[in-house]
Amino acid sequence: MKRFLGILLTVTILLIPATALADYDYDSIPTPNMIVVDGDDPSVVFYARNADQRLFPASTTKIMTTLVALANGNMDDSFMVGEEVLGTTIKFTKDSSLMGIQPGETLSLRDLVYGLMLASGNDAGEAIAKHVAGSVDAFVAMMNQKAQEIGMTSTHFTNPHGVHNDEHYSTARDMAKLLAYALQNEDFVRIAQTRTYTVPANSVRTTELVLVNTDRLLKATEGDPLQTVYPYAIGGKTGDTFAAGKCLVAAAEKDGARVIIALFGDKKDLYDGDTVMTNLARFVNAAAIFEYVFANNYQTIMAAELGLQKAFSTGVVDADAEDLQDGQLTMSAMIEELVVRASAERINAIRANAGSITANVVLTTDAQAPIVAGQSMGTIEYKLGDDVICTAPLTADFSVDKVLGVSAVMPEETAVVTASPDGTPLIDKGRKDWNTGDTLTLTFVLLAVLLVALIVIFILSERKRRYERKRRARAKKRRQQYYE
Is 59 marked active-site? Predict the structure, then answer.
């Protein structure tokens, strides 16, 4: 008990806000292999320990499996899984990390990828490999090819899940590089940061599967004696085998700055045999390191200091014209409390080129009445060149009622609003907005057409009547001549 309290005290000290520490005591962490890098440029290393030493990546392998599946498979494909879910090169046991599927089930590739990343299902890994590449061996070849493309020069995979094999290896540096690459894929990020995912029951498996993310930086487990959740965590992958120990490759993002941590090899003998601490230490340590690096290895600037454009406008479908300003809804970007966090060099570049920062706004809410003042309309990206400096929420400045008597017409596509370098909004929308003026114009056109039609009908009728009078007069004259 005393030993546990002592370790708890040590961890508590590590969680003191980083700004209160003169320097982070990396030596207090016994993890054998680790590296801390900039998530956007993993060549920028904040700390490394045996980062190039060969190690067993265990289930962190599944980051690569997911990337290959996303690049070569269709997430909406549904197919029947077979005996491969029991293991091919090695048969899975009750102690294996499994999603919980059975041969004969029909599942989507999406279900399997979530089962792979969240529940760390080895069975899902085998099913994905066979479906995407036709065989596990062919899929593994694709994994190794991708590793070479990324620059993982000290990595070799033999399976899609990380079950131990002496020839299945990597390094902390390579795995950090892998996650940095994966975070460029929006689909991967969406999957990795999901807390829970439910796979419906089917005729083979009569109960649903509720998949819970094993990354405790994202979701705590009930009964854990320590706080592990880190609010800026954006996803990663855990690993755990006897040979590899407890592993974690994880990323966090704060104010636009992104950090990646790779921790490998935590075992009980490093934590006085305490199983609980051995399992939780990687999450607690990662959270403390993240906080320290954000506070001490980056600089900040308030977005409001950069003179960024804050006002934008757009047309509104079905709007009451009296509620608009010059036919437009005006919107404001909320940047007053927005912080930009980046390296010292990057902050200096942003300051020096503030006048070249452009704005790109995507309306994630349909620009269609009714709209309420303060309603979220979307987000805005502020960019310097091709790099996003920061993003801000965009809200409506005032309410807009729906014009009476006009049925709702949904825009064909979400409106995209951009701003030119001089701050002039450039609005590109999928369809023309229909307003009261358009309704009046149509009414006048229809009345004019009706009037012309009536005039034509009158003229034709008069001509017909004159023709009939003349015809009757000629017939009468012929009769008179005949009887005379």
Answer: yes
Say yes or no: 280 and 399 in one domain: no
Cis bond upstream, residue 370 (ω within 30): yes
Specify the pLDDT at position 471.
58
DSSP class of residue 104 equals: T
Catalytic annotation, pick one of 120, 170, 402, 429: 120
User: Is residue 149 one of the residues assigned to a domain?
Assistant: yes
Tell whether the model's pLDDT for residue 33 goes beyond 80.
yes
Known catalytic membership, residue 62: yes
Pick the catalytic residue: 2, 28, 43, 62?
62
User: Domain for residue 333, yes or no?
Assistant: yes
Q: Quick: pLDDT tens for 274-308.
A: 999 999 999 999 999 999 999 999 999 999 999 99
Give the whole-angstrom CA distance, residue 86 versus residue 126: 8
Structure confidence by residue, pLDDT tens digits, 176-206: 999 999 999 999 999 999 999 999 999 999 9
Compute the distance between CA of residue 35 and CA of residue 51 in angstroms, rounded to an integer.
6
Q: Are 393 and 257 contained in the same domain? A: no
Tally of structural domains, the chain:
2
φ and ψ of 375, to 5 deg: -65, 140
For residue 75, pLDDT over 80 is answered with: yes
Determine the average pLDDT of the residues in 48-73: 98
Q: Is 178 inside a domain boundary?
A: yes
Long-range contacts of 145-150 (CB under 8 A, 24+ apart): 146/64, 146/67, 146/68, 146/71, 147/64, 147/174, 147/178, 150/177, 150/178, 150/181
Single out the residue of 53, 67, 333, 27 nearest to residue 181, CA to CA.
67
Do residues 290 and 350 both lie within one domain?
no
Backbone phi and psi for residue 338, each to the nearest 5 degrees, phi listed first: -80, 130
Looking at the fold, whether 58 and 30 belong to one and the same domain comes out as yes
What is the residue range of 314's domain? 302-428
Contact status, residue 260 vs residue 178, Cβ threshold 8 Å: no
Catalytic residue among 59, 97, 170, 332: 59
pLDDT the model gives residue 436: 53
Residues 186 and 119 in one domain: yes
By DSSP bridging, strand 257-266 and strand 329-333 are: unpaired
> Residues 377-413: pLDDT tens digits?
999 999 999 888 999 999 999 999 998 755 544 444 4
